Amino acid sequence: MTWEEARDAGGPRSAAILPVGAIEAHGPHLPLETDVIIAEAMARDGARRMTARGMRVIVLPPLAYTAAGFAAGFPGTVSLRPETVTATVVDIARSLARHGIGALAIANAHLDPAHLASLEAAVTAIRGEVGLPVVCPVLAVKPWALRLTEEFRSGACHAGQFETSIVLAERPDLVRAAMAELPDNPASLSRAIRDGRRTFEEAGGARAYFGAPGRATAGEGRLSIETLGAILDDAVRAELP
């Protein structure tokens, strides 16, 4: 968009979607930018749904760098301090509000605890200091988690069947052939987090994946993208009926 097109995109029934991911290890078969790919797919499908019901929607360039402490021991992972992430998201919201965007929707597919805490702090600050309506559905909690796949709900889902299927649907050229040879890793990352584990290695992910990547299909990925887009749209609808 040009600046004049961006100027005309605002108004009370407008929203900007910010895809948020991470640059971190996703097994030996998926690219470091996997969470960014998933967040952009979620944003695009959500934008389609919002536009269909009369909203003006812009999809922002993704925020690709964030807190990624769980994967910090793997080469390629880039991890920021949580407070840096919070400040960045709040500053983005300030700019959007200044130029007349009606709401901010965060499409997030990265579930590192420090990252989620940074987004929660950002949402609180945006609502209190900026005054911009903002939504950020946390996929790992109810009601959103109940709408996603069985593997996702099990917590054994980092670079597994759920995420690999989405990358197969979006960027099959980036999925390495190693996918088909990887054994299932049933270790639950979410349970490990609750038990106080702090890294993929401690959680049982020596190769930075959890779940069953060998079972992934592009068809499942397309269905998951539609679900993610519907989740984002429903979260925005609750904030801006």
Features:
241 residues; alpha/beta; Rossmann fold; 4-stranded parallel beta sheet; 9 helices; 4 strands
In short:
The chain has helices spanning 3-7, 34-52, 82-98, 113-130, 150-154, 161-170, 189-194, 200-203, 218-239, and strands spanning 14-20, 56-59, 104-108, 134-135.
Please write out the topology.
Elements: H1 3-7, E1 14-20, H2 34-52, E2 56-59, H3 82-98, E3 104-108, H4 113-130, E4 134-135, H5 150-154, H6 161-170, H7 189-194, H8 200-203, H9 218-239
Parallel strand pairs: 1-2, 1-3, 3-4
Helix pairs in contact: 2-6, 2-9, 3-4, 6-9
Structural account:
The protein is about 45% helix and about 5% strand. It has helices at about 5, 35-50, 80-100, 115-130, 150-155, 160-170, 190-195, 200-205, 220-240; strands at about 15-20, 55-60, 105-110, 135. Helix 2 (about 35-50) packs across helix 9 (about 220-240), helix 3 (about 80-100) packs parallel to helix 4 (about 115-130) and helix 6 (about 160-170) crosses helix 9 (about 220-240).
Number of self-contained structural domains: 1
Stated plainly, the CATH topology is called Rossmann fold
State the low-pLDDT regions, or none. none
Rounded to the nearest angstrom, the radius of gyration is: 17 Å
CATH H level: which superfamily? Answer: Creatininase
H and E order: HEHEHEHEHHHHH
Report the structural category.
alpha/beta
Tell the overall outline.
globular
Number of strands: 4
Task: Tell me the major beta sheet.
Answer: 4 strands, parallel
Number of helices: 9
**Residues in helix, %:** 40-55%
Strand arrangement, largest sheet? 2-1-3-4
pLDDT averaged residue by residue? 97
CATH level 1 name: Alpha Beta
CATH architecture: 3-Layer(aba) Sandwich
**What percentage of amino acids are in beta strands?**
5-15%
Terminal Cα span:
27 Å
